Amino acid sequence: MEYSFLFLFVLSTLSLLLPTTTSHPTVFNVLHYGAVGDGQTDDTNAFAKAWKQTCAVSSSSVTLRVPSHKTFLIRPLKFYGPCNSKTVTVEVYGNLVAPYDPSDWRCEHNICGRWIHFHGLAGLTVRGHGRIDGSGARWWRTKAFEISDSDNVHIGGGLRFKDSPRMHIVLNGIRTLSVSNVTIDAPEQSPNTDGIHVTGCTNVVIDHSRIGTGDDCISIVDGSSFVTVSNVVCGPGHGISIGSLGKNGANDKVEHVRVSDAVFLGAQNGARIKTWQGGRGHARHIMFERILYHDTTNPIIIDQFYCDHQHCRTKESAVQIKNVTFRQIVGTSRMKTAVILKCSKTFPCTDIVVEDMHILTTDEHDATFECKNVLGIAQGKTVPGLSCLDLV
Ligand SMILES: *[C@@H]1O[C@H](CO)[C@@H](O)[C@H](O)[C@H]1NC(C)=O
Ligand SMILES: *[C@@H]1O[C@H](CO)[C@@H](O)[C@H](O)[C@H]1NC(C)=O
């Protein structure tokens, strides 16, 4: 008896001396920090307070919860790390909505360009069936949701993103990242509303998601490698794009990208690689496989003359495009020219492989292709027959 008492005493004394690390998950609900969630009241400060607590607590895992059946109006907000817990989960079951009036933004110098910004976290999960509504139609100039300079990031669980004022999800400088089971939804006419923008990330998986926007469904740009995209439906939108790369002479590198089991519905482009004249670097080791098109304007397009204004000139240097495979491609093209492979004279595209492809126009006529400075092979049966490639 006395011994067990002593034992308990030692234990409780020890627990006072040891840092207060608990192994139990700890949940912080924004409602407990004064958030109202009526869609009218400014809940920014409540979220900031809840995040401060969440980030400060030292536990194996900690959760910030946004409860369901409520709409929280929040101005631009930083969720910055490092945090004291190993992993931080943000559960979004309710809706987050941005203020309609940009003058409500009162944004500070470095945060003006973003609405919700996670930064410097190791082990972040954002999930839940809630909706992140950028109210974009009123002010298309800001990135809605950005995660930067973090490791081990997971986004998913049915999360819905809607009407971002600019790009919906920006993933910037992340090592090990997954985006799974998200829905992104913006009008076809909305400018620059990329769905998921991946820059400087490595070891990336994006899957089981539905993306419809006014710009690229997914854009993969400089410094990204080992990116796997699968089971994604894109449309409306400008397709799954690698690039643009090499703008203003930039030395951009993207490699080891694999896009498979993608469906394009009424999209403006499908599989696209776009680079600017005068750039450097490379886009290489890229595979598009098992792709289905329905009424897509440009199903396959490599464009080394990308230019989004009137005054681009042909230059000597270019981003090298090498080892790109399109395999098991079927569907319909809105344009007669279903395949465009336009490369520069000084840096032809090399090791381009097209294998088993069947594309007709939307009204079921023969489609055609356009090739310029492309070296590679056509394998299996390709419709249209790509006579610009070596037939194997
Ligand atoms: C996506 O998330 C929703 C909501 O949480 C869930 O019901 C559904 O099963 C998930 N789907 C997949 C493919 O994981
Ligand atoms: C070509 O790219 C594929 C990925 O699509 C990669 O697995 C393969 O190793 C690359 N080939 C060479 C010669 O680098």
Automatic annotation (TrEMBL):
UniProt xrefs under InterPro entries: Glyco_hydro_28, Pectin_lyas_fold, Pectin_lyase_fold/virulence
Cell compartment(s), UniProt: Secreted, Cell wall
NADP among keywords: no
GO BP, sorted A to Z: carbohydrate metabolic process; cell wall organization
Signal peptide: 1-23
Domain of life of the organism encoding this protein: Eukaryota
Active site: H238
Keywords from the UniProt entry: Cell wall, Cell wall biogenesis/degradation, Glycosidase, Hydrolase, Secreted, Signal
GO molecular function, one term: polygalacturonase activity
Chief location of this protein within or outside the cell: secreted
Entry's family note: Belongs to the glycosyl hydrolase 28 family.
Classification via PANTHER family: PTHR31375
Name of the molecule in the record: Polygalacturonase
